[in-house]
Amino acid sequence: MTMEKTDQPGRCDSCCRVSSVLYKVSLGHDFFDRAYNRLSAVDDQAPRWYCEECSREKDFQRDVRSIREEFLRLRSGSDSLLSDPSNFLRARQRIREIDQQIKKGRSPHVILSPRDVAILLMDLDSWADDHGIAG
Ligand SMILES: [Zn+2]
Q1: CA 116 – ligand 1 centroid, Å
Q2: Per-residue pLDDT of the chain (135 residues; tens, 9 = 90+)
Q3: Residue 119 CB contacts under 8 Å (≥ 6 apart), including other chains
Q4: What are the beta bridge partners of residue 25?
Q5: How far apart are CA 57 and CA 53, in angstroms?
Q6: Distance of CA 109 from the midpoint of ligand 1 (Å)
Q7: Ligand 1 centroid from CA 113, angstroms
Q8: How many Å lie between the centroid of ligand 1 and the Cα of residue 51?
């Protein structure tokens, strides 16, 4: 993720708190190193600015989305990047980290739901158990 920073105090577009430093988040590449295309040209013309905590959550959200999408494909029997066990373990590790980070973070979370992350982590764990993926 690349972040453009402004020193102009302003309001975070996500949590609406006034912050002395705001970041414009460009999501760049996703967890699997694919170009992340959710930031369309239209969005870029009206950029959103985030406080530090929200920009971090935004980064987590991008990875959670990519990993969840691939996991749903794996579970439904489609081609998935997670069918490679080393990718699977790396992805689960990332979700674990995010789970830890947002648990000890602020509340309420405005961008990413800690419950969604916890559920994804449980699903990944039980998939690993059922399919003998050790790590
Ligand atoms: Zn914020």
Answers
A1: 20
A2: 556 777 678 999 999 999 888 988 776 788 998 887 655 555 556 678 899 889 889 889 999 999 999 999 999 999 999 999 999 999 999 999 999 999 886 767 788 999 999 999 999 999 999 999 986
A3: none
A4: 3
A5: 6
A6: 9
A7: 15
A8: 4
Q: Which residue has the tokens 């295309």?
A: 37
The pair of three-digit structure tokens given for residue 121, joined into one six-digit string:
């982590």
| Distance in angstroms (rounded) separating the CA atoms of residues 81 and 87 | 7
Number of H helices, E strands in the chain: 4, 5
**Rounded distance from Cα 8 to ligand 1 centre (Å):** 15
List the one residue out of 29, 20, 33 whose CA is nearest residue 2: 29
